[in-house]
UniProtKB/TrEMBL annotation:
Domain ABC transmembrane type-1: 82-262
PANTHER family per the UniProt record, alphabetical: ABC TRANSPORTER PERMEASE PROTEIN MJ0413-RELATED, ALKANE SULFONATE ABC TRANSPORTER-RELATED, MEMBRANE SUBUNIT
Spans through the membrane: 30-47, 90-108, 120-142, 148-167, 192-213, 241-263
InterPro entries according to UniProt: MetI-like, MetI-like_sf
Protein name: ABC transporter permease subunit
Originating organism: Paractinoplanes lichenicola
Localization terms from the record: Cell membrane
One Pfam family of this chain: BPD_transp_1
Family stated for the protein in its record: Belongs to the binding-protein-dependent transport system permease family.
C-alpha cells in the first residue's frame, strides 16, 4: 500500500475557472485584434493596387490622401467645416426626437393614434433620403436650415417606430402593479414607460445615424454654404480627387469618434441600471 502511494503520480492542482475564462477572453481579444489589423492591411493593399492599376490621377494613393488630410487640418478648415456639419446633424436629430418621440409614444400607447399615424410614418420612412435633401433645398434654399430639415425628416420615422415598439413592449404587469400601489399616470410614465423606451430610442439613433450624416453631407453638396459637403463640392470642381477622399475619410473618422465616445458612452450611462449593463461593465 505504501509503495503504491509513493509511486503514484501527484494529483493535478485544481484549476481556477475564473482564470481560465480570463485567458480565453484574452486570446479571443488578441485574435479579434489580429483580424482587424489584417483587414486594414488588406484594405491598404487593395487601395495601393487600385492606384497602380487606374493611376494616381483617378485614384490617389493612401499616402497622397493622408498628406491632403494633413493639409486640411493644418489649414484650419477642418474645425470650422466639421463643427458646422456636426452641429447641423445634431440639430436635425433634436428636431427628429422632438417630433418622432411623442408620435411614437402615442402610437404605442393608444390604438386609435396608432391607426392614425402608422401609414404616414411608414411612408415617410420609405421615401429615399435624396428626395428629402432636394425638397429641403427647394424649401430653404442655400441656408443651414436645409440640411437640418433633411436630417430631421430622415430620422423622425425611425425614432417614432422604435419608440412605439418600446411602449408596446412594456410589461403590462408592471403598469398594473404601479396602479395598484396608487402611482399616478405621471409617475408611471416617468418610472416605467420612459426607462423602457430608452434602449429603443438609442437603437433608432444608431440605426439612422449613419444615414443622417450622409444626407446632411449630400444636402451641403447640392446647396450648402459651409460644411464638409460644401468642401467636397469645391474640391470636386477643382478636380482634386485626393482632397475629396481626404474630406470623406476625415468625416468618417470624426463620426465614428462621435458614435463611439458620445453615443455609446451616453447609452451605457443611461442604461447602467440594467443588470446586463452592470455585468458587462465589470
Amino acid at each position: 500500500m505504501t509503495d503504491q502511494l509513493i509511486g503514484a503520480a501527484p494529483a493535478a492542482p485544481p484549476t481556477d475557472p475564473e482564470a481560465g475564462a480570463k485567458r480565453t477572453a484574452k486570446r479571443r481579444r488578441l485574435r479579434l485584434t489580429g483580424l482587424v489589423i489584417l483587414g486594414w492591411i488588406a484594405l491598404y493593399g487593395v487601395w495601393e493596387y487600385g492606384s497602380w492599376w487606374f493611376g494616381s490621377r483617378l485614384l490617389p494613393t493612401p499616402y497622397e490622401v493622408l498628406m491632403s488630410a494633413v493639409e486640411i487640418v493644418e489649414s484650419g478648415n477642418f474645425l470650422t467645416d466639421f463643427s458646422a456639419s456636426v452641429l447641423k446633424t445634431f440639430a436635425g436629430f433634436a428636431v427628429a426626437a422632438a417630433v418622432g418621440a411623442p408620435i411614437g409614444y402615442l402610437m404605442g400607447r393608444y390604438n386609435y393614434w396608432r391607426a392614425f399615424f402608422h401609414d404616414g410614418v411608414t411612408i415617410a420612412g420609405t421615401i429615399p433620403a435624396i428626395v428629402y435633401a432636394v425638397l429641403s433645398l427647394i424649401v430653404f434654399g442655400l441656408s443651414n436650415l436645409g440640411p437640418i430639415l433633411a436630417v430631421a425628416l430622415v430620422s423622425a420615422p425611425y425614432i417614432a417606430l422604435n419608440v412605439a415598439e418600446g411602449i408596446r413592449g412594456v410589461d403590462k404587469s408592471l403598469v398594473t402593479m404601479s396602479e395598484a400601489f396608487g402611482r399616478s399616470p405621471q409617475q408611471i410614465r416617468r418610472e416605467v414607460l420612459i426607462p423602457t423606451i430608452v434602449p429603443y430610442v438609442f437603437a433608432a439613433i444608431r440605426m439612422c445615424f449613419a444615414v443622417a450624416w450622409k444626407v446632411e453631407a449630400l444636402t451641403e453638396v447640392f446647396g450648402g454654404r459651409n460644411g464638409v459637403g460644401f468642401q467636397i463640392r469645391t474640391e470636386y470642381q477643382l478636380y482634386d480627387i485626393a482632397a475629396v477622399l481626404a474630406w470623406m475619410f476625415l468625416f468618417i473618422v470624426f463620426m465614428l469618434i462621435i458614435e463611439r465616445l458620445v453615443l455609446a458612452k451616453s447609452e451605457a450611462r443611461l442604461l447602467s441600471w440594467r443588470p446586463q449593463e452592470r455585468s458587462s461593465a465589470l
